């Protein structure tokens, strides 16, 4: 799973508008489980966070990321990844580079490299300087017709 420590710090320090503590707890648990490679349990935790607060984009994004990029093919599902990533983009008003990056990864996993390239270019424009090289690397994969995989 990608490094979410800066996101988690901001998230737990300032909270998320409209997001209950239980949803935040399940989201945090999902991130921890994903980092430990327990993808099935992470998916359950993210789904519970979404159930508790369907307007909270972060668990939608993380669920989409697993479905799009998991190193274990049993967990990948491009179509589901696109659904969750699109909803997360809508909730974040299409302004979050990390979430748009996830949509691009989901589209690539689903085989739509043309749209993956389009959205990855938008993510690159929005990305902070320290994330641009990773965005560019993913963009190059999509241009080569390859999806991104977590290691």
- Helix content bin: 55-70%
Number of helical stretches of at least 4 residues: 8
Strand content is: under 5%
Structural class: mainly alpha
User: Which spans have pLDDT < 50 for at least 5 consecutive residues?
Assistant: 5-19
What is the succession of H and E elements? Answer: HHHHHHHH
Sheet with the most strands?
A: none
Tell me the name of the CATH class.
Answer: Mainly Alpha
The name of the CATH topology is Serine Threonine Protein Phosphatase 5, Tetratricopeptide repeat
Annotation, overall tally of beta strands? 0
Query: Averaging pLDDT over every residue, what do you get?
Result: 90
Count up the domains.
1
Morphology call: globular
CATH architectural name: Alpha Horseshoe
Cα(first) to Cα(last) distance is: 8 Å
Radius of gyration from CA coordinates: 14 Å
Fourth CATH level, the homologous superfamily: Tetratricopeptide repeat domain
Describe the structure.
- With 151 residues, this protein is mainly alpha-helical.
- The chain has a single domain (5-143), classed as Tetratricopeptide repeat domain (Serine Threonine Protein Phosphatase 5, Tetratricopeptide repeat), CATH 1.25.40.
- The protein contains eight helices and no strands.
- It has helices spanning 5-14, 21-35, 39-52, 57-69, 78-91, 97-109, 113-126, 132-143.
- Helix 2 (21-35) packs antiparallel against helix 3 (39-52).
